[in-house]
Amino acid sequence: MLNQYIQELEQDPFDGEEFVERLAWRVNASVSPPGSTESVFNPDLLHEAFTQAIKDLQVLDERTAKKCERVEAEVREEEVRHWHNVAQLLDNNKEAFQSFQDLDSHINSVATKVVHLGDQLESVNTPRSRAVEAQRLMNHFREFLLPGPLVSEVFTDKTKIYEAADVIQKLHLIAQELPSGKFENAKQKIAEKYDEIERSLIMEFVKAHRAGDKDRMKEIATTLSHFKGYSQCVDAFIEEAQHGALRSRDLYMEVVPLCHRSEVLIREVFTNPEQVMGKFVLNIFQGQLQEYIQVRLDNKSVPEVYLKNLHELYCQTLKLCTDLQRFNLGNDSQFLSKLTKSIFQRHLHSYISVETRYLREKFNMILNRYYESKGHQKKNIQSGGINDIRRNIQDVIGTKANINIGPAVENYGGETFLSEEVAISLLQETKQAFKRCQMLGTNLEQKLDHGLDRTLSAIVSYVRHVLTVEQKRTDFKPENDDMLITNVTVACQKVVRYVSGIAERIRDSLDGHNLESVLLELGLRLHRTILDHLMKFEYSATGAMAVICDVNEYRKCVASFKVPQVNSLFDTLHTLCKLLQVSPENLKMVCSGDQLSGLDRNVLASFIPLRSDYKTAKLGNQLK
């Protein structure tokens, strides 16, 4: 029965009522006659069964409790063993860490000794190496002092050209320091050998380029980088790389692929790939591209063809410059723009006159062709106020009274000589001309913007100069703190007078949004300059009154700009200056006022320390 009880108790979920019901059912079923459908109720038997079941469950409970105690004891023993192992591992880890520190200290000690030994060896070896090198150069120099040809294997064996290049380059530097006279022949022989080896290296570089030997090209280029003729090596590479290229009718299509192929090789061969790539592109622009453009623009006899070619070539060149920007051509960001300008400068200089002359001729041709188709000969009619009034009166009187006064006015049979086709042709020509002008004409807006920016920078620089020279520290921290402030400082007077005059000139020169933008930028820069200037001083109570008067005068000056953003900035600056005068007890209240509540706390924290009583009144605590 115990096994049966265990199975029933281990059911999930376990229901106690069902367990009792099943127990009662089994007891009743055991006393019912076989084959009977009615159960016989025997209370004594049921009581006995329940009593026995309770005893069995108690026995089962005792067994389970003992089993739990045994398992808990095993777990505690396992936990003890586990903590013992953890403690042992911690001890081992500490020992390993200590060993690691000892080893690290030992390694550092050994490394220090090795470095010291290396320094000693280097201090001994460097002079020795220099002495050996000097002896080697002296032996070679002695050979140049002797008459006759060179017999050293270094200069006669062509396989040792790199060693010869290293020697002759150093001898050439030494020869430049030697006096003339007895060393003149040796200096001449060294110079001749220097040029000979340089030419040989360049020839070897060209051969390696044609053979596709990148490693040898790199080795030669590195060697030649110490020679005066390194630029000739670069020129030889450019000439060889462009040989046979850029020969098709559409030259622009070949430039970018050629530059891409060459850039890969340039980066592998040369130590200064940006400069070489820039010279490569420069050679293309000033060489074949310029020749190609000049050939197509050489004939100006047909203005229409000339203008069309000029516009097309200029657009293609700008697109080419955009495509070439992916390559690193050096530090000059205007490099490609300058190249384009140098090629087209002569044509762009006369473009406007050519364009206007062509438009006049084209318009006259279209109108004359139209008049010829109508059989009409255009006459020059006098125009002006009196002539127009006379013709109008003549037309009215002649129509109403049928009286002909003055010369007869021809109406050409009612022909108005207005043609939609002619108008479309004129508009089309004008459209094409505007399109060309937009691309080829000088970008005046950009130049004006640049000029205005430089003008504003000059204005602000002068204001900064006046403030620096004229403003004295005693203006804001006078020796007599009881003196009465009745006027603005000299520096403020000069700045306001200067800025007012400048603002008047700006209003005379600009209008609309341009005027608003320039005055806004001027106001912003003035505010920044004045704020930076005021942050350099320390202010007493009297000095605070002086700076408030100055800022109020600045505020009146910029109010004439009629720019709300600038007015707001100077209003805030005026309120900031009041922090220099307000009593320490009211400082916190003023800082949290409406005009300063939205201001960055860092600005307040940097402005309040300008007070002379900042430390004595412990005003730093007011901002915490």
UniProtKB/TrEMBL annotation:
One of its GO terms (biological process) is Golgi to plasma membrane transport. One of its GO terms (cellular component) is exocyst. It holds the Pfam family Sec10_N. Residues 163-441, 442-623 form the Exocyst complex component Sec10-like alpha-helical bundle domain. Residues 43-157 form the Exocyst complex component Sec10 N-terminal domain. InterPro entries: Sec10-like, Sec10_HB, Sec10_N. Keywords: Coiled coil, Exocytosis, Transport. Belongs to the SEC10 family. This is Exocyst complex component 5. It comes from Homarus americanus (American lobster).
